[in-house]
Structure to design on (1032 residues):
């Protein structure tokens, strides 16, 4: 029976059999949960359908908890987690199992006597239900592949990025702090300017006013933006290569297709 | 006679013959319609030349309706729509025929007893006249080719984009909602912040104020922009490849020209 | 003597001879003119050194007029403009000759009885002195080469860009005009929003406020930015290829350097 | 003994020996200094731990001065600076030695009778301690390599960039100065608009208001952004190539991996 449940819960290989219907039901439930999270955030809708939202939440928690417990119990059916107890514990630390747990955790915290304020923050964890869908959507696993492929380059670029952020923030803090003690109050707060400038978002809530600040800010903008775009560019090219691989034949140059 | 009208309306192959003059007349009329739409939107011009605009609109509608009816009637001359009635109906559902219909539809709705408020919205449909020009401008058909070539990649990227938008909006909504209940009023409204940030437009009408919001907003900006630029980049590279193909020889690598 | 003046004015081939000193003097004068234009724009500096600026302007005009007249007179020494009068007239229409004329024109207009208001606008023409330097800086001629090389692609992209601008502006005008009759007053004025959004500048002086406007504006931003970046990308890649050619050997792939 | 100190201070080749521990200690001290600079900028933290910050600053200065003096003294052990006095002086002008000196300089200036206001500005020099870390982080030396590799292309692009900035600022100054005498007060101040626009940051503190200014500003934005992104793009591609080289085999094309 454990074997049967395991096959029901794992991603179906054939369209139309029982496992496929279970997948479909779970995908529908996850999607409805995401829709519920979005709709519940709209004040008038939340007020009018509060009971409905609460009932749906309770229903979802029951199903997701059942799913989590069953997945944990049947983990031994997978060759990677063959050992009775150790296998189950090891399964509990796989990314998908952690996501499954975090998605239902906020509901059980009050019973564990956790502070109410923390529980409120934990509501954000309902967002993990969004990630449960990754089990069924192949394309989303490309993310993991890219992060693996480009790990070294990404790490180096993040070091650069952090350096650049620290460097530009410190300069602008010393230059602008006297003229704008509120906006450029400290180096960490000046980083908000650095991020807004180097990503070219430029909300306009904070910008240099002194001539020296504008001069240095301008030089930082012109030179820094190219450097800052590096990690983003590496991520983008990584995705683009991996998306390309699924369409072009393997081994072909991603540029000329030969 | 139906054959003659069909050749008059189809894109001319030889400069200077009757069909070429019909093309020229229709292109001129479409261009004048676009100019009229733009000029009519300017209040002082609209007021002064109202009668002229109304007359030109009536004239255009008559010509475009005639064009639509004739194209529909002569569709059978095209080998693809050979069958008498079914061919005409099938032609009516081709993109160009739909555009031709939508471009004249708003004028005829009042006679069908449609609500005046909807008709006002339908005025936007006059914009479809802009697309009528695509029949004559080869370059604009590249759009369709790109959408065909890169369909799979675009679909995957749109899934990513939507995921990213949903994910970042939900985080920022939970973090900023308490401090800014108006700007971050709900997840759908927070998406406006996500779009403005991830596209790096940054109008500055909405941005995080709390330290946690700025921290998470900064991380989202730094990491998300590269991911978000993916669909745009795929579209751009698709166009650039297709534009290149028309200039370089076919089969040559669009990168090194070999 | 005409031959001697021609060689004095043309770009020197050997460092240190008379022609080289003339080049140096003209480059210095052009640079000083640019500095003068910038400094004169600063109110306190303009007021204090007004006489100095006026004298320097007079001196520059005398030299540049002399240079223009001599270049025109000695144009026949160039094989391309060999014919006595026709050669001089043909030279007068070369880009550099036109720039030389426009750079001094505003000074002579009052003597020709031109309206004072137009003369004021013509002061902008002093900017052409900046371009006179292009004769001596090889690198700036790359601009011309790129515009020649990528003419067809640029033309196509400009058609796209204009289409996109017209299309998005018309949509947003119809959607937002009622809610913001000042900012989205007409289609031409809505183009300011389209440009600010599609270039991702986003000053924040104009943005949609209605839910429908935000929805459509968001879709336009996400999809349009990639398309809009096309002409800019073509220009950039054109420059990058041409800059590369001067460093790598000709015929080599600009990507792998082979 | 000088030889021993030289090896202690130079980057360790073997993990765990004495030189490695010295490296670790200096890296830790540099990192703590950066943390201290950041924390000290936060008003409440600075007030509460002022004595601690002052003591740590004194301790750091002592160590860094000792490090600088010892490095200067032992420079002769390096084959490049073999000659007794001339070698030491030549070492003092290497980038790392200059950084080491500038990082401690502000502390010693008061003893040299330098004006207090200048000393305050010199506090910014503490930032050079951040760069001391470059000696130990291999990846940061990529910056130097890129600047060397792409020197010619970068120089050409900086000339372009400056030209573009000067050109667009002068146009917008003449067009907008009358309507906005404060924001577009002079050409140098208009450059702030040019930078904000051409980098697409667009803070929204300064933008054209007149129809002509919006028209020209729009054209500048559409055409200029691609050109302006050139130096940034060259830097980015340079980094990306150099980062790639460390992962792919040398000699392989960074694009197709062959």
């Amino acid at each position: 029976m454990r074997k049967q449940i395991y096959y029901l819960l794992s991603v179906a290989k054939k369209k139309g059999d029982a496992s496929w219907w279970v997948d479909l039901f779970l995908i529908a439930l996850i999607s409805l949960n995401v829709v519920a999270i979005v709709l519940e955030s709209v004040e008038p809708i939340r007020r009018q359908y509060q009971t409905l939202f609460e009932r749906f939440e309770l229903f979802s928690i029951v199903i997701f908890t059942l799913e989590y417990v069953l997945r944990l119990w049947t983990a031994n059916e997978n060759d990677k987690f063959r050992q009775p107890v150790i296998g189950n514990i090891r399964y509990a630390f796989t990314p998908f199992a952690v996501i499954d747990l975090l998605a239902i955790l906020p509901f059980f915290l009050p019973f564990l006597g956790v502070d109410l304020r923390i529980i409120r923050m934990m509501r954000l964890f309902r967002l993990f239900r969004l990630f449960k869908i990754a089990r069924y959507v192949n394309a989303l696993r490309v993310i993991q592949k890219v992060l693996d492929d480009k790990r070294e380059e990404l790490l180096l670029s993040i070091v650069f990025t952090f350096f650049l952020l620290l460097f530009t923030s410190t300069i602008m803090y010393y230059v602008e702090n006297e003229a704008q003690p509120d906006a450029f109050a400290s180096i960490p707060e000046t980083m908000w300017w650095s991020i807004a400038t180097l990503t070219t978002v430029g909300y306009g809530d904070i910008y240099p006013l002194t001539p020296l600040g504008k001069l240095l800010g301008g030089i930082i903008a012109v030179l820094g933006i190219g450097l800052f775009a590096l990690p983003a560019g590496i991520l983008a090219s990584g995705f683009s290569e991996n998306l390309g691989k699924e369409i072009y034949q393997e081994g072909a140059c991603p540029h000329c297709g030969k």
